[in-house]
Amino acid sequence: MCKDVESKIIFGILYIYASSNNTFVHVTDITGKETIRRCSAGMKSKSDKDESSIYSAMLAAQDVANVCKKIGITALHVKLRAHGGSKSMIMGIGGHVVLKTFVRLGFRIGRIEDNTPLPTDGTRRKGGRRGRRI
Fold it and tell me: How confident is the model over 55-72, as pLDDT tens digits?
């Protein structure tokens, strides 16, 4: 019985890029070469101010999850990403909501990785020598 249950688990890779202004959800097959579905919170909102909202991120995640269910993907490896580099290393609010939405819709989560790019002595950070003065 255990072999039958394990044979029905089909993995995909879920890429979540959550900046402070938008959230992108992208699912590929396990090799990462074939895109199954891409969607962003900006595609689901009617105004620019709603791109960063958690509701738009949830709608984008539901859209991608429905396509994954039709294809037969039941489990996902997750790769999270913030803006990174010389900018913010903190993921936007939509990233957590996307992950929570996939779990609530019945997907199993394999590995969770953080793919935020790290600065390697690149360009100087914005704000000047004494920082941003409020």
Answer: 999 999 999 999 999 999
